[in-house]
Specification:
single chain; alpha+beta; globular; Glutaredoxin; iron; 4 strands; four-stranded mixed beta sheet
């Protein structure tokens, strides 16, 4: 399967998905850590991909979304943004609302 198809399958196969450095249990950078903490506080399950463990995804994800940095958060197949946007949405209460609407 082509790497772009694998990315698309991951994004569309989960209501909430994060491409991050590390794992939710062991984030490998501060941005991923803060973003995944915000997702956890929304109290719904989410999928993830450790981009450090898959160099093809690491190299091609910025091209897929036209977004150059990690982490990348997707809700219902749409890119929400990276760390700053996700944290801003969390602080306003928008992230939890959006996730709960997506997951049910």
């Amino acid at each position: 399967m082509d790497v772009m198809d694998r990315i698309d399958e991951a994004v569309k196969g989960h209501s909430v998905f994060i491409f991050m450095k590390g794992t939710p249990q062991f984030p490998s950078c501060g941005f991923s850590s803060r973003t995944v903490d915000a997702l956890k506080q929304c109290e719904k399950e989410f999928g993830y991909c450790n981009v450090l463990a898959d160099q093809e995804i690491f190299q091609n994800l910025p091209r897929y979304a036209d977004w150059p940095t990690f982490p990348q958060v997707y809700i219902n197949g749409e890119l929400i943004g990276g760390c700053d946007i996700t944290l801003d949405m969390f602080e306003k209460g928008d992230l939890k609302t959006m996730i709960h609407e997506a997951v049910g």
